[in-house]
Design goal:
The structure holds 2 protein chains of 2 kinds. Chain A is built from 14 helices and no strands. Chain A is an all-alpha fold. Chain A is globular. The N and C termini of chain A lie far apart (about 45 Å). Chain B has one domain. Chain B is built from 11 helices and 2 strands, in the order H-H-H-H-H-H-H-E-H-E-H-H-H. Chain B has a two-stranded antiparallel ribbon. The termini of chain B are far apart. The chains are: A mainly alpha, B mainly alpha. At the A-B interface, helix 5 of A face helix 9 and helix 10 of B.
Chain lengths: ~325, ~230
């Protein structure tokens, strides 16, 4: 390791928006591959529709605002479309990803002034609009299948299944014995989560994202799950179950880390992540929707400016407690 | 008093719904379909017109110290009147509108006009102001309600018979046939997003008109044009 011997001046690479977006898209590839393998080509179709709609909306709105459409070259609309597409059920009719992409870019980003000005995560705005408007189509996930088989059956996701059965008065240990559940569902989602985790770790290693938000999300979710699982393991699922199902990994590394709408200070980011994780667990366990990641991110987006205000970084050379303005 | 200005102010320049942003509670809550919006709009139009007329007529008798309670009394009696009439003749609609009928009393657009205009002006201008402000409010309600109904159900004017009598049973337009409907439009967020888009549209129209009237007279307008 002769890295320590290099003396200044150093050559610095200014990270461009385009470079960051491309790297994040690249890091999504393992997740996309695993999802396509498990859920079929619908995943790719969703990506195609969603990205096309998002980019087209961006071009249209930029034209309406009298700005250059070339701004789409920064790739942010592509990434928004891709993140939204990966959160949609793979068998969705074509208009679902199209509407989602349109709402995400138009209502989630452009009405506030475009990239850098949106208070909410655009992909999650699109997702929530779809989830609220078309709850049936949005929760119809096919069972993960380890081959491109034609006999894929549509069934509730692991999260959905646990939720419905718990309300029927059954215990978790009973539910886990359900045919198809333990084998298919859990192992399938485990693979998806591992693929996203790999992409996320790559982004961490590249320093495209900080460690605070992903760690915060997983900790917040894990701690809540651990406490309640410890108290009553028949009614509350284990931390591992929560980490490996639904949008947990995709969300922790790719969605909650959106640099625009998340908190910007290091401590703020940790708190932001903890909040997202804890809220996701709360909505999953006691709320009306099977997965609460999108709502949790939007709720914490509202809090992000406040978090930034109360977690300022210490200016180098000043005391521990700088006076608040 | 320039009467044409009163008309323009009420309908566009100083519209209660789009510019003053008064009376948002009923505006957002009841605009989930065309008929509800129209009914509440008509009730508000009536109350606003007659309250402006009354307040203006008694403006020299009421002492300034107690004017607000007096205005509220006037408005509350008018609302009670509307409520009793609707309960008698339009029972179903009365039940649908529920709490939003009595709270017309606290609609800031109404007491706002009483305080800001009617208590300082003669009867005829006050009457016209009240009517035009009410009409402006009604139009915003109807457009928002219509848009939300079209988006969420694909139809326009479902339940018109509740307002116009049984002859209109089943009379409505199907704008988008066989639609699944955008449920969001009928829910509260739909009202906020819809109103936001309407305000944005009004601002865009205003700016375009201004640019068209005096092309690039100010540097700001020129910059926005470029």
């Amino acid at each position: 390791m002769n890295r320590d011997l290099i003396s200044s001046p150093h050559l610095r690479v200014q990270p461009s928006v385009r470079g960051v977006m491309l790297r994040v898209l690249g890091a999504l590839l393992p997740g996309i591959a695993v999802c396509t393998g498990l859920f079929g080509p619908g995943v790719l179709l969703n990506l195609l529709w969603c990205i096309s709609a998002a980019v087209l909306t961006e071009v249209l709105v930029m034209a309406l605002r009298g700005r250059s459409w070339r701004v789409i070259g920064d790739g942010s609309a592509v990434l928004t479309g891709a993140l939204l597409a990966l959160a949609l059920p793979p068998d969705a009719p074509w208009w679902l990803p199209v509407l989602g992409g349109l709402f995400a870019v138009a209502l989630g980003k452009q009405v506030y002034g475009g990239i850098g000005f949106n208070p909410f995560n655009p992909a999650m705005v699109g997702y929530v609009v779809l989830l609220i408007s078309f709850p049936v189509a949005m929760t119809a996930w096919p069972a993960p299948h380890l081959a491109w088989a034609a006999d894929a059956v549509s069934q509730a996701t692991a999260l959905d299944h646990v939720r419905t059965e718990l309300t029927q008065g059954r215990t978790l240990s009973e539910i886990q014995l359900d045919p198809g559940f333990a084998g298919h569902q859990l192992r399938g989602w485990l693979w998806v989560s591992l693929a996203y985790l790999a992409g996320g770790l790559f982004l961490l290693q590249q320093r495209t994202i900080g460690w605070q938000i992903p760690l915060g999300v997983l900790l917040g979710m894990g701690l809540m799950a651990l406490i309640f699982w410890g108290v009553d393991s028949d009614r509350y699922a284990s931390p591992l179950f929560h980490w490996t199902s639904g949008a947990a990994m995709l969300g922790a590394f790719f969605i909650a880390t959106d640099p625009v709408s998340a908190s910007t200070t290091p401590r703020g980011r940790l708190l932001f992540g903890l909040g997202v994780g804890a809220l996701t667990w709360i909505i999953r366990s006691w709320g009306g929707y099977p997965d609460g990641f999108a709502f949790a991110v939007l709720l914490m987006n509202i809090l992000a400016p406040t978090l930034d205000r109360y977690t300022p970084t210490r200016v180098y050379g000043t005391g521990r407690r700088p006076e608040r303005p | 008093m320039n009467l044409a200005k009163l008309v323009r102010d009420g309908l566009w320049t100083n519209n209660p719904g789009l510019v003053q942003l008064l009376g948002l509670c009923p505006l957002l809550a009841v605009s989930n379909n065309f008929v509800n919006a129209l009914s509440l709009g008509l009730a508000t139009l009536f109350v606003l017109t007659v309250s402006n007329l009354t307040v203006s007529a008694i403006r020299n008798v009421v002492r300034p110290e107690i004017r607000i309670p007096v205005f509220v009394m006037v408005i509350a009696s008018l609302v009670t009147l509307v409520e009793l009439v609707m309960n008698a003749y339009l029972q179903t609609l009365y039940d649908i509108l529920g709490i939003f009928l009595p709270i017309i009393t606290t609609n800031c657009a109404i007491i706002g006009r009483a305080e800001a205009f009617a208590s300082k002006n003669r009867v005829l201008p006050a009457l016209i102001d009240g009517f035009m402000m009410g009409l402006g409010f009604l139009l915003v309600l109807v457009v928002l309600g219509g848009a939300r109904e079209i988006l969420s159900l694909g139809t326009l004017g479902q339940g018109l018979h509740l307002l116009l009598g049984d002859a209109f049973e089943g009379v409505y337009w199907t704008i988008i046939p066989d639609t699944q409907g955008l449920l969001l439009a009928a829910l509260p967020p739909g009202a906020f997003i819809g109103l936001g888009l309407m305000i944005a549209l009004k601002n865009v129209i205003d700016r375009r008109v201004k640019q068209w009237r005096q092309p690039s007279s100010s540097p700001v307008a020129a910059a926005a044009n470029a």
